[in-house]
What does this fold into?
Amino acid sequence: MDRTSLRAVGWARSLPMDREVKEARDWAREHLDSLGWTTSAPEMVDAVLLTVSELVTNAHTHAHSTAQLVLAWDNRCLHIAVHDSSSKLPSPRSPSTESLGGRGMLLVDALADEWETRSCPHGKTVTACFRPPQNVEAAP
It folds into this structure.
């Protein structure tokens, strides 16, 4: 086997603005369950689902856009990517006691092992990476 090759598994879902964020979480949970993580790494599953909620909510609320959600597992990292049609890149900001919002990217920053944003010709993609604990192996 060529050790430079990489085996990956992934799933994609489009979530129009009229869809609830819960639908994104439920869909992601099904795929995390197929990796065996709902029983072997429940704390990480909670962090991933909260990140999915925040990123899809940002696409719907701030970008006023359909959220294109992609989960990809490459045997090292679970990548959660959400694409929307806004070119404005998110960044963590200090929460205000005057506002109910503004904490989403702070949560993503605290939960994910790393995250990044990339501009695209028709918007942007925000990707968060989660590395499972050493003792957790995902099903193929």
